[in-house]
Amino acid sequence: MLILLPPSEGKAAPRRGNPLDLGRLSSPGLSPARALMLGALVELCHGDQDPTTPVQDAMIVERAAATLGLGSTQLDLVAQNAGLMTAATARADRIYTGVLYDALDFASLSAAAKRRATSRVGIMSSLFGLVGPGDRIPAYRLSGDAVLPRIGSVAGFWREHLETAALEALGSGLLVDLRSGMYAAFWRPARDLAPRVATVRVLHEHNGTRKVVSHFNKATKGRIVREVLENGANPRTPAQFADLLRELGWKVEESAQTAKGVQLDVVVDEL
Question: What local confidence, expressed as pLDDT, does residue 14 receive?
Fold first, then answer.
């Protein structure tokens, strides 16, 4: 089973740690593509100066901020990107923060669940394509809908490069796709994988009406991943995954299989 998660927009910047080593990340076949994306982002945020020197050119900073969709109070993130070549790194499960990751809480998983996460969880990344929880990466800022000089659309770039790495990570198991629409665009499973693809949507039901609530959608997905990892079961089909969620106490409704797989609606009545 491979559980695909979106990244978080906010990230925790480590104060100490070795600099990035692309060769030590999982999915090593992505190294050339990662190097291209990393180089394009650093060049955008630092210009063609020596990447070990501080950012000083205000025009470069303003242009980078506009490209990355950053406001005037977020210019420190341009400097953060400019220093990626020498920045401290930490495990990806400590870098990514936010509602989903707070609810999942990798750090407090049992030892067995942490081992399962290593092989069963993948995180989509605008900068690195696909990373595992234990991959050591720096904090960065790059949205999935960005368009970079020399690279073009970030999503389009990864659509050209992620197929092999994603299939290798998936193997013969079930794909549980929890990505948001932006990051789902990085790699879309082919039609022949549909019988073993489950996408999950969280719906809040109140007074007979159902709707998606962004914050709670993310928190519920984090809790689901946590419980699945702690449980240890390894379902092979969307139906088996739905049954597992029901065993764990969730209300789940299954759609009919389509060319994209099976959608599982997790219905909750408390926020």
Answer: 96
Pure H helices in the chain: 31-46, 58-68, 76-82, 92-95, 99-104, 111-120, 154-161, 163-170, 181-184, 214-231, 238-247
- From first CA to last CA, the distance across the chain in angstroms is 28
- Domain spans in the chain, listed from the N-terminal domain onward: 2-268
DSSP 30: G
Instruction: Write out pLDDT tens, residues 79-120.
Output: 999 999 999 999 999 999 999 999 999 999 999 999 999 999
**Averaged pLDDT for residues 132-143:** 98
Query: Does the predicted TM-score (pTM) go above 0.85?
Result: yes
Task: Decide: 127 and 31 in contact? Cβ < 8 Å.
Answer: no
Tell me the C-alpha distance between 253 and 248, whole Å: 14
Average pLDDT score over the chain: 94
Q: How many CB atoms lie within 10 A of CB 29?
A: 12
Measured between alpha carbons, how far is 211 from 188 in angstroms, rounded to an integer?
25
**Two structure tokens written together for 270:** 């408390």
Other Cβ atoms less than 10 A from the Cβ of 62: the count is 14
Structure tokens at 115: 């081992």
